[in-house]
């Protein structure tokens, strides 16, 4: 059997690891976040994502970790009202920010947000792991459309009668618009038709 | 899926007479998911999320070679880092009492059997420090040549003893070779399917707590918060490795973020988490695989190469059906997928043969992925049927109708309920099948449009070993207050919390709100694994038996505290029948002539799966399976680099699953026909059949749109553009 010892690889690895150790070491930083309406002050490692801050430091486990790389959307929260991927957001960069999770969308007395009620009614989930991210994403998306933000499928204003832009500067949410704007949130259980139905119902109100 | 026999004590005896049908009131209605409010707010607790004081974080180390051995692990820098508690290696890891299952023999030797295998782990105060320290461990290997490539030309393909779980490896009925040679119309085609990964949204997670009571001689206690399809199965598997009696191990798993088979049995990370807990001084050790790590450590669907030979007379009646499968397994642990098994019972071909051959390779361990066997096997068989329909000049729906068997071709037994023809006819009518034209003839602008159909089937499994307990609860004032229903069942999105509550309410003849279901915990009576679409059949039958025994023992007005247990009843009468689910699946596709892009504007599934317990959640399971089948047809492929021995597209940016924009109009309906031979509920399980027929329906539709027959999944644009 031919053998090959990887001396050279190991030597490179040593140099690399020393560089990484120097470069990637964390520094503590004190910050305050307002999470679901409550001020929370804590010290975080500068490397800590907003997602891990919420889940592991503040025990706010409504946002989920599905990929930790911004590819699945399960960690979506509203940061100062806009949807963000909390796994790609460093907590240290958002001292003083307002964070709303799906848990915070429901009122303090437990009354569910209209999107949450619609997801229940249309069975817009199965395992539920992507669901808080879907709901935060939907809430952020409805606000974006209301503010007139176009998407990749929004027809330009000069496209004539097919234009989907509303007269009041909003974007009307067709099913194609909802699908396009919700495509950053993966659902492996495949509940998409029910998710679209739930969001359509809320957006029509 | 595996037939578990995880028995518990049962106080009621097992009846031998045929089981009495359940009188239904709640079953068949559509209450919202009882676990729904917790899921839409994110407060339902998954494995990582149980509140535990002072946890430690585990970051695994993985082999960077595909075969060889670790010769040096320099952990000095990692151990010197502030906040690092321990670095586990093959040299210092706890010894396991049983290394018979090589997948679970974690850190028991320096040998590396596949790239990505665990070779160590860092245990640290924070996740950031654990990950940082893991990068500081320098590893030196003695690398050996590896062999990871499945091909039909290999001389070392072998015949496994059985295929998953216990089916014969090969079958021969009549003389299939001779019948094929003599047939006036033949199709002889080879299909291939790629390696695929389950990729549930919740990564595989295990939080382990190893507590050693201070009293001398007392037994350690292990608690696992685990992301699993079967808590009792995890306990049964892991307890002996750590020389613990099962009662010293508790597994808690009330909510599971999807599994699709990959959480059907404990994997190596569970063992690693327990090892980390053992060195954590009683503190919880938290381990969640990263998405990338899941591609080598949580199972995968084997790639397959399938040769289909169909022989028919000129009217399309099958005379010969040969289905020969080649697939892979890992060198350290055999998993033989039952890919060709459905061809043994699907159609009335007098002469049939099936075979399975395996290559044992230096790869991660393959395992269950939604409808293992049926999904890839029926893809190939149903695409070949589409080719036969063309060869005979017969409509694909009609071809299947002409080959409908009156009894099970394999066993000769009558069907407990087979309504495939009705599914096909109903689906054709609803889908507008009569508007389908010949291959490559329908065009709208730059888009070619086509329709396809395929049959689906799945066995009606029920696995013995579950036990349920019913207890009359007390309300706050000491009076009666509903019923506790306890069984170690699992809900991985399958709707168990809701459907099992409905079954219990009907079995106890009480309102839904009076049932307080408890599942997902080994402190409850034993539950079999949520696999093989067997959950509701197995647990439901058990709950019905327990409720009946409870009423018999305690009457209609039991006192608080009254309690009865029963195990899953066996039903000897069922042995006289062949019990399977069936379905007809239709797809319409649009193929762009310039880019080769495939869109799926419409899919419809019509299913015959016995009684539907909860139409709302059932439809979700059906269409979810169909989405995954469409994904199998068009998107999913784990690209294995044979030079390095790993899956290079190991994340969601590169391993494509459908997004919201990929899924348009998908619907599922079902025939209303309880199968009372199957169990008292008349149900047959619905978790997997949705994925079975949809890949072939899509691929057949692509052929109808373009005239191009793609026999190698997934149907990516390059395969259409180069044809």
UniProtKB/TrEMBL annotation, chain B:
It comes from the Bacteria. The keyword RNA-binding does not apply. This is Xanthine dehydrogenase. SUPFAM superfamilies: CO dehydrogenase molybdoprotein N-domain-like, Molybdenum cofactor-binding domain. Keywords: Molybdenum, Oxidoreductase. InterPro entries: Ald_Oxase/Xan_DH_a/b, Ald_Oxase/Xan_DH_a/b_sf, Ald_Oxase/xanthine_DH-like, AldOxase/xan_DH_MoCoBD1, AldOxase/xan_DH_MoCoBD2, AldOxase/xan_DH_Mopterin-bd_sf. Residues 41-145 form the Aldehyde oxidase/xanthine dehydrogenase a/b hammerhead domain. PANTHER family: ALDEHYDE OXIDASE 1-RELATED, XANTHINE DEHYDROGENASE. One of its GO terms (molecular function) is iron ion binding. The lineage of its organism: Bacteria, Bacillati, Actinomycetota, Actinomycetes, Kitasatosporales. Residues 1-39 are annotated as: Disordered.
């Amino acid at each position: 059997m031919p053998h090959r010892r990887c001396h050279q690889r190991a030597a490179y690895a040593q140099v690399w690891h020393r560089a990484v150790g120097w470069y990637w070491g964390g520094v503590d930083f004190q910050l305050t976040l307002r999470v679901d309406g409550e001020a929370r002050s804590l010290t975080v490692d500068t490397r800590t994502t907003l997602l891990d801050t919420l889940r592991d430091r503040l025990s706010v486990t409504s946002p989920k970790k599905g990929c930790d790389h911004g590819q699945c959307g399960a960690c979506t929260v509203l940061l100062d009202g806009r949807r963000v991927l909390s796994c790609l957001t460093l907590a240290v960069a958002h001292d003083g920010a307002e964070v709303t999770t799906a848990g915070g969308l429901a009122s303090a007395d437990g009354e569910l947000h209209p999107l949450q009620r619609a997801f229940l009614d249309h069975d817009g989930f199965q395992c539920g792991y992507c669901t808080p991210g879907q709901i935060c994403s939907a809430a952020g998306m409805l606000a974006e459309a209301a503010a007139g933000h176009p998407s990749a499928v929004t027809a330009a204003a000069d496209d004539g009668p097919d234009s989907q832009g509303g007269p009041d500067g909003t974007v009307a949410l067709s099913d194609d618009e909802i699908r396009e704007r919700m495509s950053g949130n993966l659902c492996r259980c495949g509940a998409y038709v029910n998710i679209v139905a739930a969001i359509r119902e809320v957006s029509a109100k | 899926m595996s037939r578990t026999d995880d028995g518990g004590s049962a106080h009621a005896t097992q009846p031998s007479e045929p089981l009495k049908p359940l009188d239904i009131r709640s079953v068949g209605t559509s209450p919202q998911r009882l676990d729904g409010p917790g899921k839409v707010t994110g407060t339902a607790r998954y494995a990582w999320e149980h509140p535990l004081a002072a946890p430690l974080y585990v970051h695994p180390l993985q082999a960077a070679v595909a075969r060889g051995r670790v010769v040096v692990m320099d952990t000095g820098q990692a151990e010197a880092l502030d906040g690092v508690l321990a670095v586990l290696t093959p040299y210092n890891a706890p010894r396991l009492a049983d290394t018979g299952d090589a997948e679970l023999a974690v850190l028991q030797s320096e040998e590396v059997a596949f790239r990505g295998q665990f070779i160590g782990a860092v245990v640290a105060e924070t996740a950031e420090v654990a990950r940082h320290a893991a990068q500081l461990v320098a590893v030196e290997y003695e690398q050996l040549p590896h062999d990871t490539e499945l091909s039909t030309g290999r001389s070392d393909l072998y015949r496994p003893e059985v295929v998953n779980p216990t089916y014969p490896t090969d079958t021969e009925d009549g003389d299939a070779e001779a019948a094929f040679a003599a047939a006036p119309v033949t199709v002889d085609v080879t299909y291939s399917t790629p390696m695929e990964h389950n990729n549930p949204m919740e990564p595989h997670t295990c939080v382990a707590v190893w507590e050693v009571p201070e009293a001398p001689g007392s037994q350690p206690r292990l608690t696992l918060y685990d992301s699993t399809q079967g808590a009792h199965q995890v306990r049964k598997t892991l307890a002996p490795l750590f020389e613990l009696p099962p009662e010293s191990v508790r597994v808690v798993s009330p909510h599971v973020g999807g599994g699709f088979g990959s959480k059907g049995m404990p994997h190596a990370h569970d063992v690693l988490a327990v090892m980390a807990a053992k060195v954590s001084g009683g503190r919880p050790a938290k381990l969640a695989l990263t998405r990338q790590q899941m591609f080598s450590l949580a199972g995968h669907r084997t790639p397959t190469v399938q040769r289909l030979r169909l022989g028919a007379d000129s009217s399309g009646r099958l005379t010969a059906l040969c289905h020969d499968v080649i697939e892979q397994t890992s060198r350290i642990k055999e998993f033989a997928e039952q890919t060709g098994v459905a061809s043994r019972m699907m159609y009335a071909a007098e002469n049939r043969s099936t075979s399975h051959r395996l290559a044992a390779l230096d790869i991660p361990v393959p395992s269950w992925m939604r409808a293992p066997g049926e999904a890839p096997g029926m893809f190939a068989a149903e695409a070949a049927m589409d080719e036969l329909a063309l060869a005979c000049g017969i409509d694909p729906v009609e071809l299947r109708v002409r080959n409908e068997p009156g009894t099970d071709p394999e066993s000769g037994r009558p069907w407990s309920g087979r309504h495939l023809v009705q599914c096909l006819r109903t689906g054709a009518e609803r889908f507008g099948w009569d508007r389908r034209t010949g291959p490559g003839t329908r065009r709208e602008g730059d888009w070619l449009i086509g329709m396809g159909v395929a049959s689906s089937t799945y066995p009606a499994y029920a696995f013995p070993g579950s036990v349920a307990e019913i207890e009359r609860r007390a309300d706050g004032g000491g009076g009666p207050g509903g019923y506790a229903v306890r069984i170690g069942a699992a809900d991985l999105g399958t709707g168990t919390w809701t459907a099992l509550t409905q079954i219990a309410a009907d079995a106890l003849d009480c309102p839904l709100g009076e049932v307080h279901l408890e599942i997902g915990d080994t402190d409850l009576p034993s539950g079999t694994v949520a696999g093989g679409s067997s959950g509701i059949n197995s647990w439901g039958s058990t709950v019905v038996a327990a409720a009946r025994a409870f009423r018999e023992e305690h009457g209609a007005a039991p006192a608080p505290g009254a309690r009865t247990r029963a195990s899953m009843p066996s039903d000897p009468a069922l042995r006289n029948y062949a019990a399977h689910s069936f379905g007809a699946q239709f797809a319409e596709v649009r193929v762009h002539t310039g880019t080769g892009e495939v869109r799926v504007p419409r899919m419809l599934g019509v299913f015959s799966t016995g009684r539907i317990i909860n139409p709302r959640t059932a439809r979700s399971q059906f269409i979810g399976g169909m989405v995954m089948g469409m994904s199998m047809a068009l998107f999913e492929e784990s690209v294995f680099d044979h030079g390095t021995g790993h899956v290079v597209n190991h994340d969601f940016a590169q391993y494509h699953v459908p997004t919201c924009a990929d899924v348009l109009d998908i619907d599922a309906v079902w025939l209303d026909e309880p199968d009372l031979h199957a169990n008292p509920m008349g149900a047959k399980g619905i978790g997997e059949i949705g994925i079975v027929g949809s890949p072939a329906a899509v691929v057949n539709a692509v052929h109808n749109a373009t005239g191009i027959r793609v026999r190698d999944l997934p149907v990516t644009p390059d395969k259409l553009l180069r044809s």
